C-alpha cells in the first residue's frame, strides 16, 4: 500500500499555507488557529476585500491566489472539506475594507453553509458582505442543488483581483464576478482516481479502457463512464458540450486547461492545442490560453477544460499583472486575428484564538464514550461516505468529538453541558457540511435539555426535552441546508425520531429504519446528488451517524445500551 506524504494526525492545510508564504517571498502571512492566509502587500487602490477558500487538496487554489492582483485572504479546510465558518470569519475580519467584503464561493453545500454563517457574523459587526457564487461544472448539470464550482473559479478570482486593484466599487465587483461566472463552463475527465490519504489506495475504480466523464474536484466519480477515446475526439466532445452551454462568445473565448494533480504538463499542453483547434473549428476565436495545474484533486489522473465567453469590458483585468504564487499570467492572442483584420502589515506567527479551554479537564464518561464510539466507527462511516464522493464524514465527526472533549465542563457535567460542548465544537471547529449541521442539531437539543418541561413529579424529563430539541434542530438544518425528509440526508433519520413525545427505544429504532431506507433514495441534496442512482444500495452516512448519536443519547438516559439496537447499527454501518 502506497503511503501518503500527508503526515498522519497532522493537519496538512496549515503546513501547506506555510509553504505558500515561503514561496511568495513572504508577501503573504499565515495564521495558525483558525488557519488562513492573507496578503501583506495588497494594492493600495483597493476599496473592497476579496476572500475565498475551500478544501485542501486543490492546490494552488485558493491560498496560492492571495496577493496583489488576487485575493486578500483565503481559508483552507482539511482535504476535500470546506473551511469552517470561524476560519472564513477570521480571515475576512483580518482584511476587511471600508468598501466591503466579497466572498467567492464554490457551489458546494459545506462551502455555502460556512461562508453564509461567516457572512452573518460579519454583517452583525457592520461589514457589508456579498457572495459571488461559482457554479460552472457541466458534470453536475441538471441537479436541484446546482452545478459544482470548479475551474472557472480561477477566471473569476483573477478578473476580480485585477478589477479590485483599480478601485472598482463593491456593487460593480459583485456584478462583474457574477457575470464572469455566468459566462464560464467546465467539464473534467479522469482515467484514474486520486490516492486516498488514509488508505493509500485509489479512492474509486475506473475500469480498464474506460474514462470517467464529468468527475468532481473532491474525488467524486462521474455520472457517466465512457470508452476512453483518442485525445482529439475527447476534446472535440468536451468543447462541443461547453460551447453548447455558453452564451454566444462573439468577442472570443478564454481557454483554461487545468490538471487535476496527476497529469503531466506535456499532456495538458497537448489538450490545450486540441481545445484551440476545436474552438476555432466551431467558428470562434480564442483570446488566450492558460495551461497548468490550478485546481487539483490531490493526484487524480485527469484534466478539466474551462471555456469563458470573453467580454471586452473586463479583459484588461484578465491580462492585469499580479503578485501571487499560483494565479495564471495570461498572454493575449492577437485580436482581431490576422485573417479577420482589413497593507504593509508585518507577518506574525500567532492565532486569532477562540475562548480558552482547559485542555486538562476530564470529560464526563458519556462524552468520552461518545468520542470513542465515533472513533471506532470512523472508517465505516468514511467508507459509506466514499460511495457519495469524498469519504470524510467519519473523520470529521470523530475530530469534532475530540474537540468537544477539550470543551467539557468536567466529569460531573450534566447532559445539557455535554451537548453544549459538542455543539460548540462542531459549529466552530469542524468544516464541511456535516460538522456545522450536526452542531445546529446538538445546539438545539442542548438548549431544550437545559430548560425542559417538568413532569407531574416536578422532575426534569430529559427524554421529552431531547425530542423537542431534535425537532428544533431539524427545522434549523432544513432552513440552512434547504433539505427535507426524502432528500437522502441526515433528516431522513432525524425526522422519524421526532414523531413521538420522548426519546425512547421506538424513536431510535425509527431513526435506524429511516437511515436504512436512504439506501433506496436518490439524493437531492449534498454531494451524493451529483451521482444520481450510482449511490443507491448504500445508506446515507449522515443519516447513519444520526442514528448512532440517538442510540448513544438513549444509553445516557436509560443507563445502558440496548443490544438489539446496537446490532441493527452494526449491520447498517457495515453495509458496504
UniProtKB/TrEMBL annotation:
<dbReference type="Pfam" id="PF02733">
    <property type="entry name" value="Dak1"/>
</dbReference>
<dbReference type="Pfam" id="PF02734">
    <property type="entry name" value="Dak2"/>
</dbReference>
<dbReference type="GO" id="GO:0016301">
    <property type="term" value="F:kinase activity"/>
</dbReference>
<keyword id="KW-0808">Transferase</keyword>
<keyword id="KW-0418">Kinase</keyword>
<dbReference type="InterPro" id="IPR004007">
    <property type="entry name" value="DhaL_dom"/>
</dbReference>
<dbReference type="InterPro" id="IPR036117">
    <property type="entry name" value="DhaL_dom_sf"/>
</dbReference>
<keyword id="KW-0067">ATP-binding</keyword>
<dbReference type="InterPro" id="IPR004006">
    <property type="entry name" value="DhaK_dom"/>
</dbReference>
<feature type="domain" description="DhaL">
    <location>
        <begin position="361"/>
        <end position="555"/>
    </location>
</feature>
<keyword id="KW-0547">Nucleotide-binding</keyword>
<dbReference type="InterPro" id="IPR050861">
    <property type="entry name" value="Dihydroxyacetone_Kinase"/>
</dbReference>
<protein>
    <submittedName>
        <fullName>Dihydroxyacetone kinase family protein</fullName>
    </submittedName>
</protein>
<feature type="region of interest" description="Disordered">
    <location>
        <begin position="329"/>
        <end position="362"/>
    </location>
</feature>
<feature type="domain" description="DhaK">
    <location>
        <begin position="8"/>
        <end position="327"/>
    </location>
</feature>
<feature type="compositionally biased region" description="Low complexity">
    <location>
        <begin position="340"/>
        <end position="361"/>
    </location>
</feature>
Amino acid at each position: 500500500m502506497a503511503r501518503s506524504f500527508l503526515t498522519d494526525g497532522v493537519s496538512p492545510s496549515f503546513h501547506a499555507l506555510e509553504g505558500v508564504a515561503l514561496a511568495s517571498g513572504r508577501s503573504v502571512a499565515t495564521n495558525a488557529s483558525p488557519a488562513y492566509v492573507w496578503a501583506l502587500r495588497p494594492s493600495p487602490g483597493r476599496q473592497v476585500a476579496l476572500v475565498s477558500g475551500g478544501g485542501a487538496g486543490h492546490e494552488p487554489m485558493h491560498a496560492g491566489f492571495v496577493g496583489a492582483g488576487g485575493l486578500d485572504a483565503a481559508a483552507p479546510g482539511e482535504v476535500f472539506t470546506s473551511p469552517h465558518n470561524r476560519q472564513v470569519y477570521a480571515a475576512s475580519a483580518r482584511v476587511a475594507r471600508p468598501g466591503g467584503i466579497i466572498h467567492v464561493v464554490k457551489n458546494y453545500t459545506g462551502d455555502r453553509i460556512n461562508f453564509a454563517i461567516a457572512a452573518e457574523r460579519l454583517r452583525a459587526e457592520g461589514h457589508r458582505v456579498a457572495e459571488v457564487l461559482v457554479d460552472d461544472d457541466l458534470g453536475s448539470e441538471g441537479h436541484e442543488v446546482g452545478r459544482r464550482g470548479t475551474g472557472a473559479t480561477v477566471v473569476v478570482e483573477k478578473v476580480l483581483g485585477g478589477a479590485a486593484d483599480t478601485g472598482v466599487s463593491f456593487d460593480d465587483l459583485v456584478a462583474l464576478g457574477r457575470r464572469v461566472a455566468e459566462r464560464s463552463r467546465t467539464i473534467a475527465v479522469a482515467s484514474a482516481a486520486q490516492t486516498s490519504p488514509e488508505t493509500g489506495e485509489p479512492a474509486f475504480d475506473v475500469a480498464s479502457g474506460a474514462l470517467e466523464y464529468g468527475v468532481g474536484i473532491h474525488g467524486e466519480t462521474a455520472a457517466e463512464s465512457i470508452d476512453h477515446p483518442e485525445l482529439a475526439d475527447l476534446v472535440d466532445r468536451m468543447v462541443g458540450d461547453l460551447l453548447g452551454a455558453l452564451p454566444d462568445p462573439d468577442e472570443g473565448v478564454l481557454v483554461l486547461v487545468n490538471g487535476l494533480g496527476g497529469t503531466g504538463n506535456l499532456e495538458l499542453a497537448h489538450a490545450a492545442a486540441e481545445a484551440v483547434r476545436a474552438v476555432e473549428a466551431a467558428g470562434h476565436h480564442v483570446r488566450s490560453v492558460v495551461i497548468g495545474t490550478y485546481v487539483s484533486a490531490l493526484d487524480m489522473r485527469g484534466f478539466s477544460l474551462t471555456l469563458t465567453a470573453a467580454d471586452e469590458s473586463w479583459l484588461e483585468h484578465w491580462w492585469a499583472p499580479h503578485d501571487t504564487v499560483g494565479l495564471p499570467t495570461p498572454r493575449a492572442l492577437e485580436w482581431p486575428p490576422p485573417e479577420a483584420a482589413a497593507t504593509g502589515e508585518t507577518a506574525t506567527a500567532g492565532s486569532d484564538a477562540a475562548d480558552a479551554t482547559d485542555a486538562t479537564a476530564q470529560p464526563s464518561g458519556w462524552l468520552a464514550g461518545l468520542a470513542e464510539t465515533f472513533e471506532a466507527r470512523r472508517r465505516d462511516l468514511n467508507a459509506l461516505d466514499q460511495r457519495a464522493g469524498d469519504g470524510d464524514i467519519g473523520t470529521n465527526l470523530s475530530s469534532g468529538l475530540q474537540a468537544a472533549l477539550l470543551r467539557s465542563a468536567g466529569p460531573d457535567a450534566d447532559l445539557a453541558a455535554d451537548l453544549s460542548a459538542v455543539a460548540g465544537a462542531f459549529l466552530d471547529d469542524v468544516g464541511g457540511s456535516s460538522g456545522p449541521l450536526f452542531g445546529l442539531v446538538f445546539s438545539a437539543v442542548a438548549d431544550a435539555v437545559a430548560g425542559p418541561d417538568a413532569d407531574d413529579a416536578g422532575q426534569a424529563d430529559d427524554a421529552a426535552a431531547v425530542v423537542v430539541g431534535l425537532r428544533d434542530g431539524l427545522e434549523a438544518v432544513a432552513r440552512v441546508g434547504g433539505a427535507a425528509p426524502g432528500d437522502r440526508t441526515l433528516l431522513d433519520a432525524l425526522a422519524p425520531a421526532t414523531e413521538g413525545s420522548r426519546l425512547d427505544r421506538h424513536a431510535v429504532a425509527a431513526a435506524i429504519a429511516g437511515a436504512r431506507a436512504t439506501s433506496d433514495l436518490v439524493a437531492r441534496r449534498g454531494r451524493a446528488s451529483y451521482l444520481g442512482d450510482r449511490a443507491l444500495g448504500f445508506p446515507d452516512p449522515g443519516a447513519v451517524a444520526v442514528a448512532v448519536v440517538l442510540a448513544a443519547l438513549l444509553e445516557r438516559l436509560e443507563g445502558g445500551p440496548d443490544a438489539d439496537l446496537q446490532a441493527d447499527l452494526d449491520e447498517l454501518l457495515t453495509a458496504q
